[in-house]
Write a structure and sequence with these properties.
With about 200 residues, this protein is of the alpha/beta class. The chain is built from seven helices and six strands.
């Protein structure tokens, strides 16, 4: 994601954004226009623009996937504003991670802090990624603690049993009487394999 360039103070690592500027534009419905976004992206140097009309809540956005696949080292993906790219902070961080893995950069024109081509932008995005990881850890810990308390209180997790204890005993008695498993299963509306395990 970086390239080494020497200056008068010695060697320092500095980002190089000498690649293409790739644009991504999205609206939620066919009735909306992409014209405003397209004009803005072109104004900021986008040489190719991927566009689609699909809800941001959908994870399968084909044109976004094409835009990401088109990125090479040193390229920059730009959007007019963040909500055109991501539907949540987690979604944004996942996309940014993939962009970084490709050695590329990201910039939201409406949101100056979301700009991995600048030191301040990279710092902000790194902080957000750390906060998201911290939040996931807290949620996992709370979920685990709640599960332990529930189990200690006698709450049972997992799928409820298909047959009650009485039904199991009755099915077992019918099996011992050599009644066909298919008939027993039909009586309780369960699979033959369920009856075979009784």
């Amino acid at each position: 994601m970086t390239a080494r360039s020497k200056n008068g103070n010695g060697g320092h690592v500095a980002p190089t954004t000498t690649g293409r500027v790739v644009g991504y534009a999205r609206v939620s419905t066919d009735g909306q226009s992409l014209d405003g976004q397209l004009a803005t992206l072109k104004q900021h140097g986008a040489s190719v623009i991927f566009r689609e009309k699909v809800s941001g809540a959908r994870s399968d956005r084909p044109q976004l996937r094409k835009a990401l696949n088109a990125l090479g080292k040193g390229d920059t993906l730009i959007v007019s504003r963040l909500d055109r790219l991501a539907r949540s902070m987690r979604d944004l961080l996942n996309v940014l991670h993939e962009i970084g893995e490709r050695g590329a950069f990201f910039k939201s024109l409406r949101d100056p802090w979301a700009d991995s081509t600048t030191p301040h932008g990279r710092l902000m995005l790194t902080v957000l990624g750390g906060l998201a990881d911290f939040e996931r850890t807290l949620i996992a810990e709370r979920t685990g603690e709640g599960r332990k308390r529930a189990m200690a209180a006698g709450v049972k997790f997992g799928r409820p049993p298909v047959l009650t204890a009485f039904q199991k005993a009755e099915a077992h008695r019918r099996r011992m009487a050599v009644e066909p498993l298919s008939l027993i299963a039909q009586a309780y509306r369960v699979s033959v394999s369920t009856i075979a395990r009784v």
